[in-house]
Design brief:
The structure holds two protein chains of two kinds. By secondary structure, chain A is mostly helical. Chain A contains 17 helices and two strands. Chain A has a two-stranded antiparallel ribbon with strand order 1-2. The longest helix of chain A has about 30 residues. Helices cover about 25% and strands about 25% of the residues of chain B. The chains are: A mainly alpha, B alpha+beta. Chains A and B meet through helix 5 and helix 10 of A and helix 1 and helix 2 of B.
């Protein structure tokens, strides 16, 4: 019965083919480290955000008169409403944490390099979608931080040439952040996750075309690949278990650490909080915005700081395959970049003083320099490594690449 | 996979695999419970589950409509004459009037037509549903279809001679 049903389906839809080629027997490098867990983990976080979000939407009211109170209603009256809300708010932070680690792994191991440029760019698109979704979701509780965060971010569009003011009013549907803004943010916050799901599909199709990269950075021979199931399903599930322990610790013990206290005060358009900060995941970019003493320049720098990742496949000029593992200069640059991100995060979190302004400016310059010096550094490093002598596998890889070109 | 590999003690491994699957599936199912539960009436809705009514304001022959769980409830202060008229049974769903009231002068019924849920209007000798023409007598019993049943009697009790709590 089962076999004949399956045969009936397979004649009409490649179900078995899909399960065999893209899930069960999908060839995966045998040497992946735990850093490769974060892609599928991000998928799980996305599903959890979608599910908790849809159930929250059943109780939330996108109207400035009732939005704040409806959150209190969810927290106090709705069965397990507190759990849904804390899972969703913690999940937003968790999503960024997982994605940032996923990106750091890609940068460290050079996974963005040919032939994975499109995979990297679809990921870049996903990051932008995630940022937009998180930003719009943050307005919905209609607290002080929600309101002023949305006011500041929509004001960034004043930097638009010629039509700045009109664009801002168009985005808000009002002369300040108001009822129209809240309702449209809610509509888009509901829509975007489904666009993300679609973009994830594209990301996965690209992945399954070029296959996973691996810590060695060279393409593996077929015998060095192993089937995804059961090896990586089990490995991914162990990662999920560890993730859920950390996630649950936040949800059940310290759910408010990631929610600004000022957001428990209803939005007041007449009074900005004394100290306004964005969510932690925007802090480095916010610091870059603040470090440029010019509206248009700051907005441009901030936009560029997010988009510049897309240029990585072209900024990295080295012919040596892979990322930081066998390339000391690239590794050095990677950790400089990571440290610089943390400094920028700190600068974004504290109030502006003369000192932090200088630190922020220097950190912003280092941020862009790590990218802009990469073409030169990667070429110098390549020359140095070739002069020092390469491992046979890398030598062979370079030889193959050279032969392909002839 | 395991059949192809050289596995030591395959039964043990299969057993562990099954136990893990069951534990995981149980956990996933348990995680769904808060989601299902969140769709049940919330605390503020449940707090509307009972309604207290002061009957002293309703004159004989007068009707008062109160909300109970968001539904209209008719409270009719019946006169002697109306009570006597209800002695005979209706035909569609014959129930004695005494069984539908706790005290004969007070009729308490849910004001929702048992046909398709409209709220009937007070008429000369009972209620008339404007939606599809169902008629009810002064005991809330259906006297003319299409309604299939008498108006529901909600659970209620007398707190004192002129106070009731519905629900």
């Amino acid at each position: 019965m089962f076999k004949s049903t399956l045969a009936w389906i397979d004649q009409r839809f490649p179900l078995t083919h899909f399960i065999k080629n893209d899930l069960a027997d999908y060839p995966t490098p045998r040497n992946l480290s735990y850093w490769w867990n974060f892609g599928s983990l991000a998928g799980l976080v996305l599903v959890m955000q979608l599910v908790t979000g849809i159930f929250l939407a059943m109780h939330y009211k996108p109207d400035i008169a009732t939005a704040f109170d409806s959150i209190q209603h969810i927290m106090r009256d709705v069965n397990y409403g507190w759990l849904l809300r804390y899972m969703h708010s913690t999940g937003a932070s968790a999503f960024f944490a997982v994605i940032y680690i996923h990106m750091a792994r890609t940068l460290y191991h050079g996974s963005y390099r040919a032939p994975r440029e499109l995979l990297w760019w679809t990921g870049q698109g996903l990051l932008l979608l995630l940022m937009a979704t998180a930003f719009m979701g943050y307005l919905l509780p209609w607290g002080q931080m929600s309101y002023w965060g949305a006011a500041v971010i929509t004001n960034l569009f004043r930097a638009t040439p010629f039509f700045g003011e009109q664009v801002v009013v168009w985005l808000r549907g009002d002369f300040q952040v108001g009822d129209a803004t809240l309702t449209r943010f809610y509509a888009l916050h509901f829509l975007f996750p489904f666009i993300i799901v679609g973009a994830v599909m594209i990301h996965l199709i690209a992945l399954h075309t070029v296959k996973s990269s691996n810590p060695r950075g060279i393409e593996l021979k077929p015998k060095d690949n192993i089937p995804f199931h059961p090896y990586y399903t089990i490995k991914d599930m162990l990662g999920v278990a560890v993730y859920l322990v950390v996630f649950s610790a936040f949800v059940f013990f310290v759910p408010n650490t990631l929610i600004e206290a000022a957001n428990n005060i209803p939005a007041n358009p007449m009074q900005t909080p004394a100290h306004i900060v964005p969510e932690w995941y925007f802090l480095p970019f916010y610091a870059i915005l603040r470090s440029v003493p010019d509206l248009a320049g700051g907005v441009a720098a901030m936009g560029l700081s997010v988009l510049i990742f897309a240029a990585m496949p072209y900024l990295d000029r080295s012919r040596i395959p892979g990322g930081a593992r066998y390339r000391p200069a690239y590794r050095f640059l990677f950790f400089i970049f990571l440290a610089d991100m943390l400094v920028l995060g700190y600068v974004g979190a504290v109030p502006v003083t003369a000192d932090t302004a200088i630190v922020g400016r220097v950190a912003t310059e280092i941020y862009f320099l790590t990218f802009l010096l990469l073409p030169w550094i990667s070429k110098k490093e390549e020359a140095y490594l070739i002069k020092r002598g390469l491992p046979p596998a890398v030598e062979e890889f370079l030889q193959n690449n050279a032969n392909k070109k002839h | 996979m395991s059949s192809k590999d050289n596995v030591v003690n395959p039964e043990r491994r299969n057993f562990l695999g099954k136990v893990t699957t069951v534990a995981g599936a149980t956990g996933a199912a348990a995680a769904c419970w808060p989601l299902v539960s969140s769709m049940n009436p919330s605390v503020d809705v449940l707090s509307n589950a009972t309604t207290e009514v002061d009957l002293s304001h309703i004159p004989p022959g007068g009707m008062h409509t109160v909300a109970w769980q968001g539904k209209p409830v008719f409270i009719l202060h019946r006169t002697e004459e109306e009570i006597n008229r209800m002695k005979e049974l209706s035909q569609i769903e014959p129930v004695a009037d005494e069984k539908r009231v706790q005290q004969p002068q007070w009729l308490v019924v849910v004001g929702i037509c048992t046909h398709l849920g409209c709220v009937p209007n007070r008429s000369e000798n009972g209620w008339l549903c404007a939606c599809h023409g169902s008629q009810y007598d002064d005991s809330g019993r259906v006297t003319h279809g299409p309604a299939p049943h008498n108006l529901d009697v909600p659970p209620y009790k007398f707190l004192s001679a002129d106070r009731i709590v519905i629900g």
